[in-house]
Specification:
The chain has 175 residues and is of the alpha/beta class. Helices cover 51% and strands 14% of the residues. It has a single domain, classed as P-loop containing nucleotide triphosphate hydrolases (Rossmann fold, 3-Layer(aba) Sandwich), CATH 3.40.50.
Amino acid sequence: MAYFYAMLLFLTGMPGAGKTYWLKHFASALQYQMTDLDHFIEQRQGCTIPELFQQGESYFRQVEKDALSTLIRTQQNTVIATGGGTPCQGNNLDLMKENGQTVYLEASVHELCRRLEQDVTARPLLGQLSFSERFGRLSEILSRRQHYYQQSDIIFHTETDNFADIIRQITTTPK
């Protein structure tokens, strides 16, 4: 743990990658606070993410960028679960990497579909799709976002990697 110091840790990945699930585990293991960016936005705006998307994706992305900037300015020793598209917009990924470490929670498209099938919450970019429609849509989204996710400081293959190994990597990687 020679390099570990107060910081922000940003969890990135596709819908269904487990950002909200892993948020609790990372925060507990690191003894950090935790914030879900989508929940932070909903509390600030007084409406849901799907309601914000109804005003247009560009409007939502600006609200998301403002919320991310606020968290970066006001938080420390915090794990932040970002939205799936957060690192792919404007300079969000650069902001996250300049102010902390980024972890890409990677999962296969098949696994994402399986997880989302069990998730009854509304997803603005996925709607109520069948498994095969969801698979196609997620494959399309991932092909556009993969470039950004792969730039993360750490890649956590959620289906195969050992969580303790990822924590060791976080706490020993110089930033």
